[in-house]
């Protein structure tokens, strides 16, 4: 019995030992599983947080892109406003130009030839010839202005003929001098037109620094973008030379049209391509000189 009891106690002790060992292993397994679960939960949380941050970043980028598109659209709408519209200012300038053609037609039908200024009329013919070409090639193209100047060439030519016929009987020496000046100007202009492209090419390829840069410029002295404004300088010069002209010889329609033309083209010159600062400056001068004559005429006849 004692041996059996010892054997039983040994068996019980062995079982208890096994049970403790099992419990310890089970506990370790449970701890390991809990730690693994916690790590998995942490990893999932980090991934979820990363995905949230990524979605937030995408939303921020989308909002930024939307803001950029809105600002770009707003900028384009501002660019298309009336102040920056080359089409609007060009149309207004063309209408003012049509007023100049209408003034010539009005003077031809209702005014006597004594009010015709031969210097101004001749300059206007050259001016309209150059601007007819300029309006056709400038960007944006202004066909209304080109048609206006074509009509003005015809109208001013009729006025010039009437003025010459009148001056031939009253002041033939002035007429002869005008013919000589016109012939010389024609020869110089013809030579310049014939040789201009070749001279420009030579200067551009010569690498002469600022000279080559000016020769190759889009609005340089070898282009109509330069000479059209220069013809307007002749108009302004003619107006300045006649600042004390008797008001009874000042054509109200003609100088009204010239004043409006100077006003509208001052802005229009800065909106076309290529931008034409020469055209802008000359229209400021044209506006001031023509407004001076217009003011004198209105003051003398209506005030």
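^ Assign residues to that structure.
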């Amino acid at each position: 019995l004692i041996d059996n009891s010892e054997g039983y106690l040994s068996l019980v002790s062995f079982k208890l030992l096994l049970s403790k060992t099992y419990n310890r292993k089970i506990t370790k397994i449970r701890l390991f599983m809990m730690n693994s679960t916690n790590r998995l939960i942490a990893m999932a949380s980090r991934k979820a947080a990363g995905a949230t941050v990524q979605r937030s970043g995408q939303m921020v980028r989308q909002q930024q892109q939307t803001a950029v598109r809105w600002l770009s659209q707003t900028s384009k709408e501002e660019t298309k406003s009336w102040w920056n519209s080359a089409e609007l200012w060009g149309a207004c300038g063309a209408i003012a130009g049509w007023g100049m053609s209408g003034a010539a037609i009005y003077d031809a039908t209702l005014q006597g030839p004594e009010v015709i200024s031969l210097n101004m009329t001749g300059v206007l013919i050259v001016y309209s010839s150059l601007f007819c070409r300029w309006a056709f090639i400038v960007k944006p193209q202004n066909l209304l202005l080109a048609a206006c100047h074509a009509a003005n060439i015809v109208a001013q030519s009729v006025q010039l003929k009437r003025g010459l016929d009148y001056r031939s009987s009253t002041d033939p020496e002035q007429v002869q001098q005008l013919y000589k000046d016109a012939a010389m100007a024609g020869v110089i202009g013809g030579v310049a037109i014939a040789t201009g492209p070749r001279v420009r090419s030579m200067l551009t390829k010569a690498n002469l620094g600022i000279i080559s840069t000016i020769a190759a410029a889009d609005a340089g002295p070898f282009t109509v973008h330069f000479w059209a404004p220069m013809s307007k300088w002749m108009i302004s010069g003619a107006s300045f030379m006649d600042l004390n002209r008797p008001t009874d010889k000042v054509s109200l329609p003609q100088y009204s049209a010239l004043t409006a033309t100077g006003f509208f083209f001052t802005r229009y010159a800065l909106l076309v391509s290529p931008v034409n600062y020469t055209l802008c400056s000359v229209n400021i001068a044209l506006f001031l000189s023509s407004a001076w004559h217009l003011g004198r005429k209105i003051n003398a006849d209506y005030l």
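DSSP finds nine helices and no strands in the chain.
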